[in-house]
Every structure is written in C-alpha cells, then in structure tokens.
Amino acid sequence: MGAPREEATSTTKITLVHVFAATDYPPQVGIRHAVSFARHRRSLVVHAHGLSLIEVLVTLVILTLGLLGIAALQAATLRWSADSAQTAATSQLALDLAERMRANPSSESQYLAAGAGAPCANANDCSGQDRAASDILEWRKAVALRLPDGLGHICHDDSPHDGTPAMPACSGSPFAPLVVKFWWSARDINGSAVDARHSLPQAVVVIGP
After folding, report:
1. Which residue has the higher pLDDT, 21 or 206?
2. What is the residue-averaged pLDDT of the chain?
3. What is the spatial distance between Cα 146 and Cα 144, in angstroms, rounded to a whole number?
4. Burial letters for 169-207: b for 16+ Cβ neighbours within 10 Å, e otherwise?
5. Higher pLDDT, 133 or 123
6. How crowded is the C-beta side of 2, counted as CA atoms within 13 Å?
7. C-alpha dihedral over 130, 131, 132, 138, to 10 degrees?
8. How much is the pTM?
C-alpha cells in the first residue's frame, strides 16, 4: 500500500510543477509572440503577393515579345512570298516579249528603240515596225498590270544590273547580251519602301545573245 502512495505523490508533484510553470509564464510574453507571429505571417503573404505580381508581369512581357516576333515573321513571310511571285512574273513577261520578237524577226531594232505605238487592229495589215510598236505598248501594259508600278526595258547591255527607268544605262553593243530590265515598287530586306522610279533593276532576264 505504501508504494502506490509514493507514485501518486510523485505524479501529483510533477503535475503541480507543470501547472505552476504554465501559470507562472508572463501573459505579456505570450501576447508579444502572437503579435510577432501575425506580423511575420502577414509579411510572408505580402512578399508572396509581390512575387506573384512580378511573375505575372514577366510572363506578360515574354508573351508580348513572342507575339511581336510571330507578327514580324509573318510579315516577312508575306513579303518574301510577294517578292517570289513578282520575280516569277518577270520571267513570264520576258518570255512573252521574246516570243513577240521571234514572231517579228525583221524588226528587232524597233523593239529596242523603246517606241510604243497604237495597237494593230489586224496583224496582217501591220508592218513589222508597226507591229513592234504595238507589241511594246501591250507588253508595257502587261508589266504595269503584273508588277506594282512596274516598268520594263529591253536592250543590249554588258552590265545589266544598273540604271533606272529614266536612264536604263544600256551599253547598246550588239555583242552584249539582250536583256530585259524590270523595276517595281517593293520593300527591301529591312522593310523600307523602294521607289521603282529611282532604284536599280529588281530583276534582269537574259533573252538573247
């Protein structure tokens, strides 16, 4: 009977010690800890909100740059497609003029004279000179229709990649290749507008020796 009493007494003492320690703890210290914890928690929430806002802004900037890049790439693709179509048109136009000249071989000099006359109502009633002038007139209309502000010139030239529509800069040597120079309004590789009237030929097609 004596041993259990000692255990009960010990247990009671331990309990009293714990109760005394808890009640002896100053209440002001507990309040300060609670306030400090609340402030720390609030600062963490504000910091987390700040990080979230920065992440959203960075994401928006990256998305905007990506969209601008896609738009620029699409514009460049459209420009390259248009340039390819126009370059293909110059080959067709040069071939058309070459066939007209083959059909009227005695009047090559008239085609080179760059004179344009009235269309022939009946090819059988036209002289070679009149037919050449009519062909040049129709061909120039086709160039203006197929190319934006399109202009074309045929001549013998040793260095065909120079000259302007007003001054084609053809050498005129009969030993030089027979070429067709084309000018049209377009945009260069930087996207700047190119005026057909003051630029070098955008395309040169050789159609004869």
Report:
1. 206
2. 75
3. 6
4. bbeeeeebbbbbbbbbbbeeeeeeeeebeeeebbbbbeb
5. 133
6. 0
7. 110
8. 0.60
